[in-house]
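Hi there,

I know you've been waiting on this one. I reran it after we fixed the sequence typo, so this is the corrected version. Both the input and the resulting structure follow.
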Amino acid sequence: MNSRQRRGVLLLLLSVVCALGAFAGVLSVISDVKSKVGPEVTAYQVKSNVAPYTRLSEGQFEKIKMPERWLSDTAVTDLRDIRGKIAVTTLRAGSLLQRDMIVDQPALQPGQQEVAIMIDAATGVAGKITPGSTVNVYATFAGEREGDPAQSKIIVTNAKVLDVGRITALDPTESSKNRQTTDAVPITFALSTLDAQRITYAESFAQRVRLALVAPGGDTTVPDRDRTYQLAKDK
């Protein structure tokens, strides 16, 4: 083997050594990154915006993988956790699903039934009523005969709100002749049979139906003499 051939062999060996060194360096970097990032775990992110108080389903979320060390303690890692839950705020597309974004769907008590009515969006809700709220329901009625005074009545006290729907544009042909409401919100209540009859009557025949939010822990008893109001009483 002449000198030129020996130099070629040496250069080849040197190239192999350099390649092995580079490979070892890459492995070292990968190992270091893995040690810092740690194992990956399953999490879920929102596919598209979910409105507040909406019942949740698995189809609204998609599975993702992310390092366990970067996952918050409140992140949802099992979609079974959303069963019977509703969103407490708007869930934005792409956001990580966390337990503090959801709450239990309010349940009916024995003897109660779900009743949903449409409430004027401008005067009845004002963004303050949420699932779990307790409200008094007021309705205003025109006099039965010409010349009779109009009346405001407390129809139901301490009604529990189960769900608040989205604002809906009403069909003018289906509206009561006494109403000028164009946008309304479906509100679902948990009510006794008698209160359900009262509230559906008010929805059908009252000029306006309003909800009054009841403060937690307050005395909400309303005497019968105070359930009906006429302007003449103040004169």
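Quick highlight: The longest strand covers residues 151-164.

Best,
R. S.
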